[in-house]
Design goal:
The protein is built from 4 helices and 13 strands. A hairpin with a 4-residue loop joins strand 12 and strand 13. It is an alpha/beta fold.
Length: about 150
């Protein structure tokens, strides 16, 4: 190893220690994620989070992500821009976020909800329901499913 390589590695470790909210193990595992995968995940995700294809995923550093969440490619979880900034999203336990889904603002996605591909979630989604469309609308909930059976 050359001296330049050692300095570069030492700089990477110092940067990892300085960055608040990023677990060092995750930093070392995904240190080149922005360049290689166009992926921006500045928070520590729960260990049970499943990422289908880590391409184009953007998650706000203050977002609250629950256990057993499945995130597909090109998902954005963040705040609404401009004067509409009203908090960050809360994603409950067992939620499935389809490819290209966008969750914006201080919304809450209930436990075990499913968000369809390319859905734009601007309002709360109740637990055990499915939301699709732009803007997302709930098309199926636990109560509707119970009535059919």
């Amino acid at each position: 190893m050359t001296a330049d390589m050692l300095r570069h590695r030492a700089g990477c470790v110092r940067k990892a220690v300085r960055l608040a909210g990023i677990h060092i193990r995750n930093y070392l595992r995904f240190r080149n994620h922005r360049m290689l995968l166009s992926c921006d995940i500045p928070l520590v995700l729960p260990r049970s989070t499943r990422i289908g294809h880590c391409v184009g995923i953007v998650i706000n550093h203050e977002a609250d992500i629950g256990e057993d969440v499945q995130i597909q490619q090109n998902v954005t979880i963040g705040v609404r821009g401009g004067s509409h900034a009203r908090g960050v999203p809360t994603v409950g336990e067992g939620v499935h976020l389809g490819a290209g889904a966008v969750v914006l603002g201080g919304v809450t996605i209930g436990a075990y909800a499913r968000i369809g591909a390319n859905a734009v979630v601007l309002d709360d989604v109740p637990p055990h329901s499915t939301a699709v469309g732009a803007p997302a609308q709930v098309v199926r909930s636990r109560e509707e499913h119970a009535k059919k059976n």
